[in-house]
Write a structure and sequence with these properties.
The protein has about 450 residues and is an all-alpha fold. Among the domains are: about 110 residues, Serine Threonine Protein Phosphatase 5, Tetratricopeptide repeat (Alpha Horseshoe); about 90 residues, Alpha Horseshoe (Serine Threonine Protein Phosphatase 5, Tetratricopeptide repeat), CATH 1.25.40; about 80 residues, Serine Threonine Protein Phosphatase 5, Tetratricopeptide repeat (Alpha Horseshoe), CATH 1.25.40.10. It is built from 21 helices and no strands. The radius of gyration is 23 Å and the shape is globular. The two termini are about 25 Å apart.
Length: about 450
């Protein structure tokens, strides 16, 4: 599930406070357009939302000029829409223009720059460009600490964002104190039952889950769910997200009977709140399908994977990264059943989409290469599998660093191939290196 999206209500309040001059006469019309676009956004109608958001931007530029505060908000919102649609280059231009206007108008250390920096950092992170994202997140944090003080909730948000960036790179020891500090700030300033506390608990739980520290993660996920149910009500989308996260925790431990009702309830909430064709529904369907697949219930999993794929293609278009993920998941289902001829074109299409959308060196490309290599290995096509495994390993080392858990997985997979082909010495070297990485990241 996506997080930290632009809050249009907050954005509108900010503009209402700052707006002056020619745009003031048109603020009501602009707000109406932004609110309409925001509603379409929540409903997953991204194409229609873009059309309305463009109208809002054009109105703001025409009435207030190119540097008007309403232009800034319109640019950020439109950038978010393009990011969700997977059009990262367009989103980047919009985010950068928004940031440039703010820096020119307010100076380089105004607190309003922090969320704009975060938007751009998240865009880079979505593309696996962690080195580009990190200085932006750090600058956002530094601005907020200086302007707002070390215990402000916005500082906690920046800490959470930076921790998430480190977690994605497998830098768990660096991420943990940031997540803990964010949680402590939220609890101190907002109280123990605030939704922001639930978010911080969830993020810390996800960090522990990534490390296999399930006993530490479980009470955090349970508390996050309890807070959200109490404060937001039992059918809020954030409750659905907490249910999904707790289910994934049980799923990872093989506690399928505990996970299934949580996945089902999460799916039901999303279907009720946003309708049957929303990307959040596609994600929930995929997770439930994966649970059935893990238990060998292939007949139950297949229609869920297919429906997830159909939703993503309909809402996001045929070349979106989420479509690639759905194709990959369906291909894995078929491969598990030995239906290799059906799985192969799905894997290949998934890989092609990911390479085009995210570039040839993105970690998700490495995952697709790994899965296609696994398909060939399962069929004894070792010569076809080896270069894919090697490229997958190289991408992960470059994008994530030499000691990331995903690198260890790639090493193990290549080692297994070498064992099958009689390259025992090479296999041992790879396994030894993978074991060292796993030891480091525990």
């Amino acid at each position: 599930m996506r997080k930290n999206r632009l809050s249009c209500s907050v954005a509108i309040c900010w503009v209402a406070l700052l707006l002056a001059g020619p745009a003031a006469a048109q603020i009501s019309e602009w707000k109406t357009l932004i609110q309409e676009a925001s509603t379409l956004y929540r409903q997953g109608q991204y194409d229609r939302a873009v059309v309305v958001a463009k109208k809002a931007l054009e109105l703001a530029e025409r009435e207030g000029g190119p540097d008007d505060p309403a232009v800034v908000v319109s640019l950020r919102f439109l950038g978010e829409l393009y990011k969700v649609r997977g059009e990262y280059a367009v989103a980047e231009r919009l985010y950068k223009r928004s940031l440039a206007i703010l820096e020119k108008a307010l100076g380089p250390e105004h607190s309003a720059l922090a969320p704009a920096l975060n938007n751009l950092a998240e865009l880079y992170q979505a593309q696996g460009q962690h080195a580009a994202a990190e200085p932006l997140e750090k600058r956002s944090l530094a601005i907020r600490e200086k302007v707002l003080g070390p215990d402000h909730p916005d500082v906690a948000q920046s800490l959470n964002n930076l921790a998430g960036l480190y977690r994605a790179q497998g830098q768990y020891a660096t991420a943990e104190p940031l997540s803990k500090r964010a949680l402590a700030i939220y609890e101190k300033t907002l109280g123990p039952d605030h939704p922001a506390v639930a978010t911080a608990l969830n993020n810390l739980a996800e960090l522990y889950r990534a490390q296999g520290r399930y006993a530490a993660a479980e009470p955090l996920s349970e508390r996050a769910l309890a807070i959200r149910e109490k404060v937001l009500g039992p059918e809020h989308p954030d409750v659905a997200n907490s249910l999904n996260n707790l289910a994934e925790l049980y799923d990872a431990q093989g506690q399928y009977a505990a996970a299934e009702p949580l996945y089902r309830r999460s799916l039901a909430i999303h279907e009720k709140v946003v309708g049957p064709d929303h990307p959040n529904v596609a994600t929930a369907l995929n997770n439930l399908a994966a649970l059935y697949q893990a238990q060998g219930q292939y007949a139950a999993a297949e229609p869920l994977h297919k429906r997830s794929l159909a939703i993503s293609e309909k809402v996001l278009g045929p070349n979106h990264p989420d479509v690639a993920a759905s194709l990959n998941n369906l291909a894995l289902l078929y491969a598990t059943q030995g239906r290799y001829a059906v799985a192969e074109p799905l894997h290949k299409r998934s890989l092609a989409i990911i390479e085009k959308a995210l570039g040839p060196d993105h970690p998700d490309v490495a995952t697709s290469l790994n899965n296609l290599a696994g398909l060939y290995r399962a069929q004894g096509q070792y010569a076809a599998a080896e270069p894919l495994y090697k490229r997958s390993l190289a991408i992960r080392e470059k994008a994530l660093g030499p000691n990331h858990p995903a690198v260890a997985t790639a090493l193990y997979n290549l080692a297994e191939l070498y064992t099958m082909t009689g390259k025992t010495e090479e296999a041992k070297e790879l396994r030894d290196r993978a074991a060292k990485i796993r030891k480091l990241t525990r």
